[in-house]
Amino acid sequence: MDVNAIKQLFVKHKKKIGGFFVAVVLMMLALYLGWLITLVYPVILFFVFRYIGIKKPMSRVALGVGGIVVGTIIFFGIFSVLWADIPSHSFESSDNMLKATVEPYTTSDYQKNFTISVVYNAPTNATLSYEIKDAFTLVTIKDGKVAGSIKGNTTKYTISVFLDEGVYFMNLSINNTYVIVELIKEKPSGLFQLLFFNQGIMAMGIVSALYVMLTYAIHITKAGAMRVGGYQPPRKESEKESDKNEENQGVQEPKTEESKEDEKQSDG
Predict the structure, then answer these.
(1) Which residues pair with 156 in a beta bridge?
(2) Which residue among 48, 53, 127, 208 is least crowded, i.e. fewest CB within 10 A of its CB?
(3) pTM of the full predicted structure?
(4) What are the b/e assignments for 249-265, b being 16+ CB within 10 Å?
């Protein structure tokens, strides 16, 4: 296929190509902004397609669902690369009494240890309990207790653990206060699989279903309103010409004096 053919193809389908591109970008933006925006995505995309001029429901569905799938894959691909090596991240209990900082938060280096620095906002001689579970099987990997050191009005604890590749939850608790932290050791490819096959597919399914239902619901409602209102679609020129011919055949030409004399003679 030469360049001119590609240009002609692009010009011919520029609305659909533009609509698909917009669907992909909007899906990525919706996933970035959060679940609430993701659920509003079908409405936004519907009006975008309407503005662009993509009217057929089948085209809207095909382009919209395709954009949702591609946008989700691209988003989680980029997210996995950016999220694979984050130096540290902090977690805090709901009562603000317990704060834990994980270093590294995520890593693709399978030889690294995780160091968890915990601060309890009160002096205490109580030990800090911890339990590490696999995030997907919820099987306990490690557990234990550590003593702390009082520094002014706080008590500090340090935990160092080595874990195999995977995603883990770590529950830290002391004096009826607890906080849950995440420990992630995965390469970008593994992280993509974990995220996409757990969150990505769910997001694609929900958003696609909402978008398809919205598109066809509006189409069916609009078609029903047209029928109830007695709407008649524009008639073709050939149909108009046919109606004119029928009307002309039904109208008799006015009779002249000669034609009247001819009729009298024929009657005589």
Answers:
(1) 119, 149
(2) 53
(3) 0.66
(4) eeeeeeeeeeeeeeeee
